[in-house]
Design goal:
A: about 400 residues; 2 domains; eight-stranded mixed beta sheet; two-stranded antiparallel ribbon; B: about 575 residues; mainly alpha; 23 helices
Chain lengths: ~400, ~575
Amino acid sequence: MNPWPTRRSLLTGALGASVLPLVASAASAVPLARHLVVVLAYGGWDTAYAVDPKPDRVGGAAGRLATFDGVDVWVDDARPSVEDFFARTRGATRLVRGVDVASVSHGVCLRAVLTGSHEREVPDIGTRVAAGVGADVPLPCLNMGSVGQPGPLASLVGRTGQSNQLAALLDPIAGLVTPHGALEPWEAAEVAELVSRRAQVVRGPAHVPERVADFVDTGWRAEAMKLRAAALGPVDRELSWEARADQAASALRRGLSRVVLLDAGLDFDTHRSNGPQGALHEELFARLGTVLDALEGRHDPGANDLLGDTVVLVVSEMSRSPVLNPSGGKDHWPVATYLLCGGPVRGGRVVGSTDPDGRALPIDLVTGSAGSTVLTPAAVLGAVMALFGLDNPYDTEALHALL
Amino acid sequence: MQPPPNPRRPRRPHPGTWPLLALLGCAEPPAYLPAPEDGSSTPATAPGPDDPALFVDPRSTEPTAAAKLVRASMILRGVRPSLDEHARVAADPDALEDLARSWLATEAFAATVRDIHEQAWLIDNAFVLLAASDGVRDVPMATIQRTVWDAPLHEIAAVVVDGRPYTEVVTGQTTVADPVLAEIWSGLTPTGAGETQGWTEHAWTDGRPRAGVLSHSSLWLRYRSAGINYNRGRANALYRALLCEDLLAREVDLTSDVDLADPEATNEAIRSDPACATCHAILDPIASALPFRPQWRADEMDLPFAVYDPAFDDLWATTSEVAPGFVGTPVADLAELGAAIAADPRFVDCAVRRFAGHALQLPPGEVDPALVTELREPFVTSGLDARELALQAALHPDVLAGPWLRATPAQLDRQLTDLVGTPWTATLDEPCCGGRAGSSPYGTFHLLRDRRFGFHMLAGGMDALFDEAPVRTSTPTTRLVLQSMARDAAAGVVARDLSPGAAGRLIVAGPLQVQVEQVHLRVLGEAHPDEVADSLALWERVRDRSGDPDRAWEVVLTALFQDIRLLHY
C-alpha cells in the first residue's frame, strides 16, 4: 500500500547504485565538502546572457566575452556584478552546461534539476546531502525558499516560511502565538517524555514503524532547534536579501543545519520581453556575492569562514529559447546550466556544452569532452554527492569530470 | 442538502491486505487493541517480525471498529468522531456506514471536498497578490486572499454537497460568491437562491460562457497566461485537474531536425512533427476556447475587475490560429468545451482517482486501476453523485485497513477547531507584504491554512505554486507547530470548559477518571487504561506542585493535543 521508497532504502542507496561508484576527491587536493548552499534562479534564466555565452542569441544586448581561469562568461559594464562574481571566484567556479532536463514545464524542470528525476517522491539534492552529512544537527536541511522536495527524508527538512515564520515559531516573545505563556520547564519535560513514550508504544494494524521513528526523531530535533533559535536571527517578517544570506550562513555556522536551500527571489520567466534578463542577471550575481560575503563572515568579525568547505550550487530550472518570440521575449528551453563554486569545487573549467541554438551536446562523463552521453541532472547531482564523500544514489553514472 | 440514499451495497472482501501490511512492518503486536471480536484471546507472547505466526493470523491486522470510525471520519470530515459516534459504533460496528452517510451534509465534508479539489487545481497561491482597493479597501488582506482562492472550491463543493451530477463542475450555470468576492470580480449577479456559510448562489452575467468552474475568474487569476504561450499553461492546468493527465510532464525531445531558430519552422513543427504535435494538438484547441485576459499586474486591477473580456473570444484567430476544440472535436466556446470534457470517460475516472487518492493519500495516477473500476460503478449508478463516491472510497476495506495516513494542515486545523471549539488563528495589524499591494492590514488568519504568515508550509502543507507533494511524515517544524498548537488548544479548552457555569465541550462534568477517559477517547480515538493512568498521574503531579487543577488540565491536554495519533490516523 505504501508506494514510497523508504527512508532506509534511500539512506542505504538501495534505490539505485552508481554504475561507477565515486569516492569523492580521493585523488584531489580539494577538501571534502561539509556544507551545501543551493540557490535557485527561478523562471529559466537565459544562459546566453552570462553562463553559456551566445552573443548572437541575446537579442542585441551589449556585452563582451571574458574568461576567468578557463571559464568563459558573457559580461557587460551594465552588469558589473556578473564580472565581479566570476573574478572573485576565479579558480573556484565550475560551469556545467548542456544539461538536458527533457521538459519545458517549470514544475517538472525544477524537480529535474533539484532531484535528478521527474518523479515526485525523489528527494532533492539538498535533502540527500543533508541526510548524508547532517543527520547529527537539529535541522539538517533548512529550506529558506519556496521549492524543495524532501520525499521520504522529510523528517530532516524544515522550512523558514515566506515570512520567516520559523523564527517566529521559535521565539517565545516575538512569535505569532504567545497568549498563554510557555509551560514550566519541568512540565514541558514531562509532556515531551509522555508524547515520545506514547508514540513508541502505540500499536495497531495501521501502525507504520518509520512514521514512529520520524516522530520520535523530530521530537529531539525540535527541542534542539529551540536551543539554537538564535541562529535564525531576528524575527522580522520581511527580510532583506542580505539578512536572508546572513540567516543562511548563521544556520550553517552555528550548527543548526548543514544544507540551506535559497530562492534568489527573482523571476527569469521573460516571455513578454527578454530585455529584463540583463537586470535580472545583475541582481542575481549581486545576491550571490552577498551569499559569499555571508559565508565568509564579512558581516561578522568573529565568524569563521565557511566558504572553504561549502559548495554553492546555483541553478535555474531551464534556459530560454534561442530566438525571440513575436513579443520580444523568449520561451522555455529544456536545457539547464549548473554553476558550482566554493572551496571543495575544483574550479577553472567548463564541463558540457551546447550548440549554437542551445541544444545539449553529448559528452564523455569522465573527461568532460565531446562524447556520446547526453548530460542529465542526475549525472551532475551524483557528482555533487561525491563532493561530500557520499555514494551516487542515482541509477545513472555520475559526471566524473566535475570532480 | 440531504445525504444520498444508502444502497447497502455488499462489500467485497479484501484478501491479501494483511500480508502486505505485515511486510510493511504493520503487523507488530497490537498493544492497545481490544480482544478480537470473535472472542478469541490475543496471543500472550507477541510474535517478532520474522515469526511465521504473522502469516497465519490475519486477525492481527484487522483494525478495530473505533479505528475505522476515526479513519472514515478524518477522510470524510477531517474531524475526530464524537463520543456519541464512538458509542454507536461500539454498540454496532455496522453503524459506521449510516453515520458516515450523515456526515455528507455537513460543512466539514464540504471543506474536505474543497481540500480534494485544491489538490487537483492547486489554486491556493500565496504568491499572487491582489490590490486591496475600492470596495474592499477596508477588508483585511487575509480575508481577500481566502475569499478569492477559495471561491472556485466553494463552487465545486456546492455541486457535490447539493448532490448535483458531478459534471456540473464543468457545465454548471451558477457559481457561489460572498460579498467580498462580488466586489472583486465583475460580472457576478446574485440569483437569489441558496446560501451556505455566507456564500450565496450567483451567476456570471457579463456574457461569458457558463461552464461551471471553468468560467471562474479566480481560476484564471491563479493560472495567468504568459500571453505569448496562447493559454497553453491554462489548458494544461485544466487538462491535469479534470482528466488527471499532465501534458507538460511529458518529456520534450529536441533531437528532431527542426530549425528552432526559425519561427515559421517551429510553428510548422508544432502542427506536424510528432515530437511536438502530440501535445500541441491537444493543448492548443483547448487553449483557444478560454476567453480570458492572459495576464495583468496587481496594480493594474481596477475593482471590480473583468477577467473575462469578449475581446478575447476569438483571439486564437490572430495568435495560434488553432480553432477551439477538444481532442479532435470542434467546440464553439467555453460552454461546449465544458460539456465535451464532461462527456469524456476520463472525466469520471479522474474524479474517482481524486476521491480515492484523497482516501489513500496517493496521487491520482497511482490509485490501483482495479479500485477505480470498483468505485466507478456506484458513482455512475448514483447519477454521478460525488457524495456516494466519497463515501464508497472512505469506507472501502482497503482504505479502512491501510497503513497510517498523515493529517494534512487543513485536517489538523479542522480537528483542533472541532475539539477546542474555536479555530487556531492569529491577527496581524500591519499592512500586508511591505505595502507592495494594497493598504489594508493582513488581519486574522488560520495559522494552519495560511501560507504567507501562518504555519501551513511548516506543518507539511503542499506548495500550490510548485505542485509539491505534501509531506506524509513528521518534520522538525511540524513538531514545533504541533507543540505550539497543543499549548494554545489546551489553554483554550480549559478557559472554556472549566469556567464557572460553562457547559463542557471536551471536558465534561463527572469524576476525574471518567473525564480523562472521555477526553482520551475523543482526542485519540481510544482510551487505553495505561494511558489514562499516565494522564491521571501527570494531572495529579501538576496539581500538587501548582495547586491549580486548571493548570493540571492544561498540561495533560497539551500532551494529548500533540500525540502522534493526531498527526497519523
